[in-house]
Amino acid sequence: MQMGWASSLCQFNENSGVGDTKLSYGYDGSKQQIWHISTKKYGDKWQIGDIIGVTLDVDKELIEYYRNGRSMGVAFNKLEKGPGIAFYAAISLGYTQGIQANFGNRPFVYPVPGFQPLMARPILKLRRANLLMNYLTNLAGIFAKYNAQYKASANQSEARVSTKKTVYCIFATMLIERFTNEIFDSYIIEDVLLARISSMTSLTAEKENPHSVLQGLLSLFWNFMEGDEIKFVLRKMVNALLSTFTHTVQGLDYEKHRQALAMLHCLCLNEQTRKFLLEGKLFKKHCIAFFLYIHPLEFYIMEELLPDYMAWTEGIDGPKEKYLGIVEKVRKVTEPLYAAQKDFLSTLMINRDGTPTSPSSRTLFLAKMRRYVIDLSMEQRPFHAFFFMQSSIQHPLDAPVALAFVCILIDQSRNMFREELPGKNVEVNADYFFDGTFDYMHFDRVGGVLSHLRKVHRSDIDARLGSVRTQQIYDEDRSNSRTNEMDTTLYLLGENVHNVAVIGHTQGTNNTTFTHFLNPRTNQGGEATPGNADAEASLCELLDLCIIFYYSAGHKYIVKIASVRDEIAALNDVLKETKYYREDVERKLLALEQHANVCMNDGHQHVMGELRAKFSQRQNVFATRSISLSRKQIWLRGVALNNQRRSLLIWMLERMIRTLTNASNTGPLFAFVPEVYVNTLPILLDAVMDFSHHDMKAQFEATDSECAVTSAAEFLGVHSADPRIVLASCKDSLLQALGTLTCHKAGVRALERSSRKSQVALVRALLRPYENRAWGQSNWLLLRFWMGEGYAYKDSRQPCVWQGGSLPLHMGLCRSRSKNETHTGLLHNVAPANPSKHFQRLIGSKLIEDEPFATSFLNSVLSQLNWAFSEFILLLQEIQNTAQRQENTLFEPKQLKICSMCFELTVSLMRCLEMIITVAPEIVTDPSRPNSDLLLNRICQLISQVLSRVTVPPGCFQFVVDMCSADLNAVTHFPIITAALGILLALMRSEMDVDITPQKVTRLSRAFLTDPSFQFATLEFALGEIRTPLLEQKDIPRGNFDPSARPHIDPLTNDLRVPFPTNSKRIRADPPIIKFALTDFPTHVNSEEIDNIRRLIDGLRMKQTLLSDITLPSEDSLCPICCAKPITAVFTPCKHQSCSDCIMQHMMNSKVCFYCKTTIHTIETLDGTLIYSNEDVMQTPMNERA
């Protein structure tokens, strides 16, 4: 935005604005620059609400700018002159920018002495208007007196009509007729009408005297002016008051803002005025939202309040007590204005002015507020908003304004519940969700579309509400459906077709949306019901609107507030690091100066001085930014999201959980709950447990929100897999909310305190098979209970080779966000470890007790792990091939992102497998379980394949790691190798703890050692000390077992007789660029964990000597599916063959043959032993014979 003066000879376009041509002069306050062909630094940085004045002195050739009445100095002192050159006020704007220009048509807020406005002051009109205003004021006092007397004598049976009253009415008619000729001028409205109203009364006086002069004056206007005339005047008055209220705060004084709000409050004490403003003004262009928003202090005021030496963050170590004292001072400055805003909002929701023909103010407020909130929510539904929604909002509501508005609404709702329904539980009645009381328009229900739910659950509604009320609801639905059919036809054939792209365009009263046809709604035109509103229903609707408003717009600024905190925390770390290295270097320099003082010359002194200067410069850069953010955080701590507003969010969370819990008790009717209630849960939990804290900590205290968090944990556990919740977005929101709980220690403890029913439901939901559902996030939740217990799994942040020290970094929750500050899902959250022994025991007991359930779950985990790792290796091979074919290759970001995602899924599934084997080892160690052998062999095969692919010999994985690509920074050796080692240690833990001197090969060791992909070098790679040579597959002897060929092995006891001959061939490969060893990561791996790997290798090596060196059968007898194990099973009736592991794994998912697709009846071993029988197929012939 550039404003100033320009000649009529200037030609502007989209690339050239004011100041970019020879005959124009402009100022840009956002960049603090002036423009006249060239540019230079000038002036203050402007902000929303500023009043910028521009003066032009042609004689002296001067152009000067003023900000809020203060001169910023001469901007230009040389102007272009010549024939035909005349200057005009000019401005160039961006697409979303806007201003309110005043050329003298309204009184100047900051007139500049010696300069005149472009439009002359209407002196004669002002005189006439002031004279007429005096007469009207006197007459209004007389009418107010008569009204008071009439009210006092209202009980009398006769009302006297005097000649004097008639004369006064004639005078009023004549005065209003004259006054109407003058009042339509904005200058008259602001300089005469508003000034006179301001001087004649005060808010306190108006409340005490309902028959004041101002009320009489407004009555005169409503009785003797045309409706359109008085409405025009009122709109202009509100605009003028809003302009004053939104003006930038001068100093620490909010008195002008309070006076402007008090004047509007006085106007709204008049019933007719209040109802008109509610219907026709306050909810347009966010007018009421701006009146309920407190504008922050200017930056120069914040600089005066908080000098640099008083700024505090953990990185700059200022006086914390004084800093918090300034925060409290700012809060107290805004308290009177906030109290006035609450008082004003109370007046707007008066519920005693309804009549049989007119709704009460509260009814109007709620009706308009619902439409306003629904229109705001359309921003999250761009398809509906662009094509179908005739919204009254053309511009989105600013995030800070939305947060202030929703917080004051919650505060008002809480107070009204206390005053009007003191003994009632604060919640939204679940009946309102399905009886048509509330209109949710485009929002779906957790069970699906409203029209479908009404058809399915008619009997349930009948039982709940009664047959009469149910019939009324369905009659209204049929009526609305017929109306919607007509609306659809008119919409497709009428003028709407030509105005689709016009956002906010309204055609008539039949405004519809796409989902309007699926979710029929009552009260089509939005007309409010006459009479006073029911207290309970109105307060429930207000609470309902608070929840929708918070979901639609209110939460967005909280995320930005947390971003300020996160940036301060990052700067604190940098400042602490800089301070440490600076002190270390200075200490070493001082020691050098002391020991080498004789040989120190000027060059050395100069170098040391430069080092100190560089450290000081680095520290000053980050300290300056920290000080700026600490000033910004004063307003955030004291006003924008202070403790009082945090308590309001906690209160709303408690009420929302109580509403959902009671709605769940309605049985099938829980499906009618609007989706917004469930979708708001993770957003509100994030705010309460994380974002509303202004200091970054590894774990936040939750003493004030303990009850709310506990109730949320109970609800989320019970409903984690509720079949009544059908909507995909609601299912995802439940997982997101559970993720928020598990990211915090207080949340995990709340889940542990929940009821047994809730915990069992949660565990069962998380352990459902990973098929036909979004399993990534539920697997992430399982790992939250495990992180901190697994092998080298103390933190979800990957370690860095160049990270110094041996202590882990204790950092707080880190969330990945997109450009619009929204979360990108649980899989991108990085949170401190909060393991739960309690849930580990629950998971273990569930898997041990229910064998089919455990087998199904573990089979799905292994299948998904196999898929994820296979996809990951394929992508690595593509990347390697592409890079080797071309130089300076540019990879597609999407391909790299998918590769990184597959790697992260692989690691997470391996960690899940580690947890399962640790908490329920009987699944694979107990040979009596039906599928134990199958699962054990699959696990060993997968782990061997993973280790062989990512360790030695160096392959595509090492190649990609050596690329050091920023998009693949998550693909490193540490997470996948430690996960694989964790699984092996979990499998072998019982043997390592008990079997110190193994004499026999156990079932577990045999399964791992006999896997064709196993090599000892893959385990030694983790220690960085490969001692065992690699064997190529072609060099491993094949053939049938022949004891005579193994004289060094006892065929009965399998004991070693002679040393194992080493005649293997060594494979040589190029050394990797980035080498790996667990000892390089002391922050994540301790010495005991490294010793466990050495013990594991030694134990397996000893047991391998007890095995045959002939580990693979001949090629002719290999299973044609896995090509690794011998054929041991025959299928009937087709007689095809494979190894028993392959066919049993296949039978978990399918009942037909691998090759011919014939339904398998039985599976037998080569000696005829039956190992599987398809009961479904076998029972059919038996039934036929019977």
From TrEMBL:
Residues 1-108 form the B30.2/SPRY domain. One of its GO terms (cellular component) is cytoplasm. Its EC number is 2.3.2.27. InterPro entries: B30.2/SPRY, B30.2/SPRY_sf, ConA-like_dom_sf, RNF123/RKP/RSPRY1, SPRY_dom, TPR_RNF123/RKP, Znf_RING, Znf_RING/FYVE/PHD. Gene3D superfamilies: 2.60.120.920, Zinc/RING finger domain, C3HC4 (zinc finger) (3.30.40.10). GO terms for biological process: protein ubiquitination; proteolysis involved in protein catabolic process. One of its GO terms (molecular function) is zinc ion binding. Pfam families: SPRY, TPR_RNF123, zf-C3HC4_3. Keywords: Metal-binding, Transferase, Ubl conjugation pathway, Zinc, Zinc-finger. It catalyses: S-ubiquitinyl-[E2 ubiquitin-conjugating enzyme]-L-cysteine + [acceptor protein]-L-lysine = [E2 ubiquitin-conjugating enzyme]-L-cysteine + N(6)-ubiquitinyl-[acceptor protein]-L-lysine. The keyword Ion transport does not apply. This is RING-type E3 ubiquitin transferase.
